[in-house]
Design goal:
- The complex is a heteropentamer, with one copy of chain A, one copy of chain B, one copy of chain C and two copies of chain D.
- Chain A has helices at residues 3-26, 38-49, 52-85, 89-100, 109-116, 120-143, 148-156, 161-199, 204-213, 217-245, 250-257.
- Chain A is an all-alpha fold.
- In chain A, helix 3 (52-85) packs parallel to helix 6 (120-143), helix 3 packs antiparallel against helix 8 (161-199) and helix 8 runs antiparallel to helix 10 (217-245).
- The longest helix of chain A has 39 residues, at 161-199.
- The radius of gyration of chain A is 22 Å and the shape is globular.
- Chain C is mainly α.
- Helices cover 80% and strands 0% of the residues of chain C.
- Chain C has eleven helices and no strands.
- The chains are: A mainly alpha, B alpha/beta, C mainly alpha, D alpha/beta.
- Chain A binds chain D through residues 253, 256-258, and chain D through 11-13, 54.
- The complex binds adenosine-5'-triphosphate (2 copies) and magnesium ion (2 copies).
- Chains D, E: This is ABC transporter ATP-binding protein.
């Protein structure tokens, strides 16, 4: 499938979504006062986009998101690989990981406000905590998926532990890690906005919360739509990265050949 | 610590954690009018999501001052948090039909008065807070059995839709949702703030015991001036809403403003505390002496 | 020169033999948690913070709060909703993920829409879900689904995309199509990735269980925690978080048992 | 039964021309062996016939119908035998899957599985998983799967590469037996020239790229083959020398 | 150089005894071929020597030191050549990786890569990925990787199974040349009896399970081997018949 055909399909999918969002309130399935039709939401979005406040808010959100994601990703990959590669460490850390992982980062809000207040620090704590696990689990599954013959080959040629991580373990885990990155990117984004919503650090979440508490329904949905659009952009970016780093992988090369 | 630091021109840099709702117009207006500058305070207002977040932030040292409703403050005090009220926040107008908080039902609902709320499902924004306490007061006052009311949590913005969809029998909301819901065909059956106590103090500004007393004094002065000014100039108060909320200007023109008085009504707070104790929201008899100035 | 190692894969834990083995297992399972608790203890004593109570205080609050009717009134309904939402998300995620993974066209069309919804934070989705599904259990289950479905869906799509071509060629040649291809090739081949997704979803489900109970609720584990938090009953709040962690731990243990069965072929030929 | 006309295949990713211009035919029930230098395009040819790869040019017909996807009633033994076995299925399940797909009754399936596993000498490991087997055993599972399927067209890509000389001889005779019994049209790719002559009624020699048919040799040996006597025939040695020379020529032509 | 004493290996998952009781020795610079029926434990033996599998009983020593992990300066060509190439690396990168690990300077690496790729006839595809190559080409990449490494001990598991007869002959001579130049101790597993005799100075015949050494045959052919003359020797034919009979016996003993 060519790039442009792909784009065409994607746009068609979005158009369908728009049509549904327009039709549902118009046909009276839900009250249009509480869920305005798509056209009205897009109108409100157009109005919002023209305000400077939105762009500062967006900047704050994306800044916090990117930083949090980067920290979470790097630490998770590092820790994940170390846990998998050092014998015995996985067994030792398993119970703790399984215990800490489901603790909702939302429940850490008091701790976050205590440590950092309504600042970037709080947002980061929540974002990093939530995104970290997403990547870590993917790394752990990916590392465990190393082909035995490939690993034997590496070992018999006397590749050091580090070389094996770099040349065998890492490429095997990469597809998993890319999925982890996509998951974590979304979760980090969600948490950035949630933190802004709940703690009140400045950003898109705060704007949503303001619109909500002001009863500005169309504006609220406009901002939500904006969040969704950002999600699409982020995904495109990760996909592009994926095409570069996973060119050899069946999931990517399959699309090129057939 | 007090966290305040010397800003430019020898001013104290102060951060206040304040919910971005109609109630807090005075502090925004006061800041715009320069009342805080006049007291050598360089004020930064940080929006927070709710009273609890304000209290956490103040105790955690992120804010020197914050805004919270009296039930939240009483609860926090009961748990031993070192907080202290410094100025009145917002008060009920005390007039039924012209207050900024109401319990609403659908137009065709069989519920006619607060008494009929018994046995029904009523939404409040937070359970075990000022909403259920004051609504129970309304029901009691109208001769109903307050213990028969079922409360569910529903954020103010989502309540009107739930009411129209018949998911709840009645909703409690504050402005701008009161005006909005009424314009969408809802009917008020109780004015819970007005019913709970005369001239009810709903929320106050507070600080922690660690804050420099001199700074507190100056903040109180500036805040009181702001409250007086806002109360005296409702049009300017409505105007300032446009700067920090996203309420539709058409709605802003219509909403009922609360009463912004400098008077902290100790009796009304005591009444709320007693009612909360009766309902089990509080566990001990409140000691207002250390909470209020 | 490296030593011959028998690195156990997840789910392929080697049976410990004898008392010494048991002791070592115990050390493995409890070692790090004990260290962490000790760290917390030191921190709580040192900081004297209101928000960081000491472990005994939390343990006391835990006993008082949860060894009571609360466990049945609040915790069990929450868990039931969690499981319902999780099951629904699994069906949806795998059900959508397989066709999307198999068809390049469908993937191209669906991906932007899915990414759009995926980027929307569940808390802001709640009002919409309330509009459509009311404020009762249905809404809460949907909120859980709205978050759980993504890791399952994404991993299913990726797992299906990465199927060994040799195996799908074999299926095509022998005329293995339709349902049987799905069962014998697609689902089994993608199962390692699907399992990774299910595992992710489990903890996200717990998070969303809490979030869903922050709205239009009057009971539930998450609601209780939020109530404690708003009421500044901090040790009780931590005890709730502890219970969440224990719940997650328990569920994840169950999950591991399931996984060990489903993926036995995978781990034994990988390890 | 099998017509390949002007087949050409260029791999798009690398732009490599794997097959240049191939034309040959197989009658129903014929058994032909394909030999050619390593990398000359034998596997590519087989994948095109199996309908797994779309040709760049030319057509392939199986039983008169043009191939657009895998034809019915065809079985393939892939060169990468290891990867073509399902790691999550036992030996028995691997052999059974295509039979299930054919909707054979259970009893018949059991019979076919047992028969074919005995034939390849794996009746003692039906419950093992592929990764618990040696390379040669895995390859024999793939062969058993193809034979149990009782196909009308059988494509085999170096199916005996991983087994020892004696087993190989046995398997060769097995293929001949089945071919004679069922009249399966068989295309057999091999590197072993002796094997090609022993098995094939025809030997198709391919050149290295651009791949064309260098020679299509009719094997004029008596139809009844026997490991000892057939291989000892003078004509056998002659043919072997001839094919060897052809491949050498095909390879050097590059 | 290589001592295998009382080696026994039972796979725990299935309880299968893959190797029964093996004892043999290789002097430094010796080249021995191992033959035996399919599934008799040749690969298992090789993996134990390579330090990838812990024996159930017995010891293995390489250069006097007991094997507990992969010994230094050893290269292995695995039977599953396809899976032993890293799909995320090009041919060139696959060959280069062990050399990098050996800390060879870049120029030397480039030299060795080019040399070994030319030797196996793959100098035209250094930038292809393994999955873009034919089976035989993949196998030759694995061979090139082992040869470029210039190991002291070389273990090869049916390394020429997937290449055509002529390439096979060339590769056999290549292995002999390199062995003579570097004095590499080489253990060569094969199913081709002719190949075993042509290459080996010794041929070790294994029985099927319980696996033991049936016979350790000294190949008393002239040291200088040549595809045409050596294979035509009367002694060659004799040895071939002998080994064939031994394997037959080993297999039938089961
Ligand atoms: N991972 C494993 N788990 C269990 N059994 C195994 C495993 N690998 C091999 N076996 C068994 O061990 C025996 C010897 O296997 P091995 O691979 O060593 O044979 P081989 O001599 O290399 O055969 P071939 O010539 O077919 O490659 C076989 O019976 C096989 O089933
Ligand atoms: N997926 C692919 N992408 C690009 N090129 C390929 C691909 N598969 C094979 N080729 C190329 O096509 C040519 C023919 O390959 P093919 O596998 O058909 O050879 P073969 O005759 O089967 O060789 P062998 O006897 O070694 O198995 C080779 O040059 C190979 O590099
Ligand atoms: Mg091939
Ligand atoms: Mg083997």
């Amino acid at each position: 499938m060519t790039r442009s055909a792909k784009l065409g399909h994607g746009l068609a999918g979005l158009a369908c979504l728009l049509a549904v969002m327009e039709a549902v309130p118009r046909l009276g399935v839900v009250d249009p006062r509480f869920l305005p039709p798509a056209s009205e939401i897009l109108g409100a979005l157009a109005a919002e986009v023209r305000t400077a406040a939105l762009w500062t808010a967006l900047g704050e959100t994306i800044g916090g998101w990117a930083l949090g994601l980067a920290i979470a990703f790097l630490t998770a990959v590092l820790i994940g690989v170390v846990i998998e590669v050092v014998p015995g460490l996985r067994a030792a850390s398993h119970s703790t990981i399984e215990f800490l992982r489901p603790i909702p980062s939302v429940a850490l809000i008091p701790l976050a406000t205590l440590l950092f207040g309504a600042s970037l620090g709080s947002t980061l704590l929540l974002v990093v905590y939530a995104a970290f696990w997403q990547v870590l689990i993917q790394v752990m599954y990916g590392v465990a998926d190393v082909d035995t013959v490939a690993d034997d080959t590496a070992r018999s040629y006397g590749l050091s532990r580090w070389s094996r991580i770099r040349y065998v373990v890492w490429p095997t885990a990469l597809p998993y890690i890319m999925t982890g990155l996509r998951l974590a990117a979304a979760v980090a984004f969600i948490l950035t906005i949630t933190a802004e919503l709940v703690i009140g650090s400045p950003g898109l979440g705060l704007e949503i919360q303001l619109a909500q508490s002001s009863g500005a329904v169309a504006t609220m949905y406009a901002l939500v739509v904006l969040a969704g659009l950002i999600g699409i952009v982020v995904n495109l970016a990760v996909r592009m990265l994926e095409r570069r780093v996973l060119a050899w992988h069946p999931s990517v090369r399959g699309e090129v050949t057939s | 610590g007090s966290g305040s630091s010397e800003g430019a021109g020898g001013k104290d840099k102060v951060t206040a954690g304040v919910i971005a709702i109609v109630d807090t117009a005075p502090i925004h207006l006061g800041k715009a009018k320069g009342f805080f500058d006049k007291q050598n305070i360089e004020l930064a207002i940080t929006p927070v999501q709710g009273g609890a977040a304000g209290i956490s932030g103040a105790v955690g040292g992120q804010f020197q001052f914050a805004f919270g409703n009296v039930t939240s403050l009483l609860t926090a005090k009961e748990q031993g948090l070192p907080i202290k009220v410094v100025a009145n926040g917002v008060s009920s107008t005390g007039e039924e039909g012209k207050d900024f908080s109401a319990v609403l039902v659908k137009e065709d609902s069989p519920i006619k008065t607060a008494k009929d709320l018994a046995g029904k499902k009523v939404s409040v924004n937070q359970l075990k807070n000022i909403g259920d306490t004051t609504i129970r007061a309304s029901v009691r006052k109208a001769g109903g059995d307050p213990s028969q009311v079922t409360f569910v949590e529903l954020p103010f913005p989502d309540a009107p839709a739930a009411l129209q969809a018949g998911r709840v029998d009645a909703i409690w909301v504050v402005e701008p949702f009161v005006s909005q819901a009424i314009s969408q065909g809802a009917r008020p059956v109780a004015w819970n703030y007005a019913d709970a106590a005369p001239n009810l103090t709903v929320a106050t500004y507070f600080t922690t015991t660690k804050t420099d007393p001199d700074l507190v004094k100056r903040f109180t002065a500036a805040m009181n001036e702001s409250l007086r000014y806002a109360d005296a100039h409702p049009d300017e108060a409505r105007d300032i809403l446009k700067s920090y909320t996203k309420i539709d200007p058409a709605v802003i023109a219509k909403i009922v403003l609360p009463k912004w008085t400098t008077d902290i009504n100790r009796e009304s707070i005591q009444a709320i505390a007693d009612a909360a104790l009766g309902d089990g929201v509080l566990k001990q008899k409140a000691d207002l002496g250390t909470l209020l100035p | 020169m490296t030593v011959i190692e028998d690195a156990p894969a997840p789910g392929a834990g080697r049976r410990a033999s004898g008392a010494k083995g048991f002791g070592r297992t115990l050390l493995r399972v409890l070692g790090l948690p004990v260290l962490l608790i000790a760290g917390w203890w030191v921190f709580s004593v040192w900081s004297e913070s209101f928000y960081v109570p000491t472990p005994p205080r939390i343990a006391q609050a835990f006993a008082e709060t949860w060894f009571s009717r609360r466990l049945f009134d609040d915790a069990l309904p929450s868990v039931a909703r969690l499981l319902a939402g999780y099951a629904l998300a699994t069906v949806l995620g795998v059900g959508l993920g397989v066709p999307i993974g198999l068809s390049v066209r469908l993937r191209a069309a669906a991906e932007p829409v899915l990414e759009f919804f995926r980027a929307i934070p569940p808390p802001v989705l709640v009002p919409l879900i309330m509009l459509l599904a009311g404020i009762d259990n249905g809404m809460k289950i949907l909120v859980i689904v709205s978050g759980c479905v993504w890791p399952i869906l994404l991993n299913t799509v990726e797992g299906v995309r990465a199927l060994d071509e040799m195996l799908s060629d074999t299926c095509r040649v022998y005329g293995v199509r339709g349902w049987s291809r799905l069962r014998h090739l697609v689902l089994r081949g993608a199962s390692p990735q699907i399992m990774a997704g299910l595992r992710q979803a489990l903890s996200i489900g717990i998070i969303l269980m809490v979030i869903s109970e922050m709205f239009a609720s009057s009971s539930g584990l998450g609601f209780t925690i939020v109530l404690f938090q708003r009421g500044f009953a901090i040790p009780e709040m931590w005890s709730g978080i502890l219970l969440l962690g224990l719940l997650g731990f328990g569920l994840s243990m169950l999950f591991r048992m399931l996984e060990r069965r489903v993926l036995s072929w995978h781990w034994s030929h990988r390890a | 039964m099998l017509e390949v006309t002007g087949l050409k295949k260029i791999y798009e990713t690398t732009g490599r021309e794997a097959v240049g211009d191939l034309t040959f035919q197989l009658d129903a029930g014929e058994l032909a062996c394909v030999v050619g230098p390593s990398g000359c395009g034998k596997t590519t040819l087989l994948r095109c016939i199996a309908g797994l790869l779309a040709p760049t040019a030319g057509t392939i017909r199986v039983a008169g119908r043009p191939v657009t996807g895998p034809p019915d009633d065809m079985a393939v033994v892939f060169q990468e035998y290891g990867r073509s076995l399902f790691p999550w299925m036992t030996v028995q399940q691997n052999v059974e899957l295509p039979l299930k797909e054919k909707k054979l009754p259970k009893a018949r399936r059991a019979e076919l599985i047992a028969e074919s596993l005995v034939a390849v000498g794996l009746d003692d490991v039906p419950r093992s998983y592929p990764w618990q087997l040696s390379g040669g055993m895995q390859q024999r599972v793939a062969i058993a799967r193809a034979l149990a399927y009782e196909p009308q067209v059988l494509l085999m890509d170096e199916p005996f590469a991983a087994v020892d000389a004696q087993t190989r001889a046995e398997l060769e005779d097995l293929v001949l037996r089945i071919w004679q019994r069922l009249g399966t049209t068989t295309l057999f790719i091999t590197h072993d020239i002796d094997e090609a002559i022993y098995l094939g009624r025809r030997v198709i020699v391919l050149s290295s790229s651009p791949t064309v048919v260098v020679e299509d040799i009719k094997v004029d040996l008596p139809p009844e083959r026997d490991q000892l006597t057939t291989r000892a025939l003078h004509r056998f040695t002659e043919l072997r020398g001839h094919v060897y020379a052809q491949i050498q020529r095909a390879k050097d032509a590059r």
